[in-house]
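Handover notes (outgoing to incoming on-call)

Open items:
1. CRYD protein: sequence verified, structure written out, both below. Nothing else pending on this one.
2. Nothing else urgent.
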Amino acid sequence: FDPRHYLGTHCYGFPKTGPHRLRFLLESVKDLRETLKKKGSTLVVRKGKPEDVVRDLITQLGSVSAVAFHEEVRELL
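CRYD protein structure tokens:
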């Protein structure tokens, strides 16, 4: 979870993620983790800037050969 996603928007100061969306995200992540656990896997969840969190996970794991990610589409104003 990137803390920057929970700050106010640039133009109007509204939260980027309100309480209902946050609850949905948390419930979805919980469900995904439970589903993966039933299949013998797991889900790593961290809070922080992705550029820091991913770097730290790679360092911690030590044997990472590839990293895949996506960038969120931003509005053009």
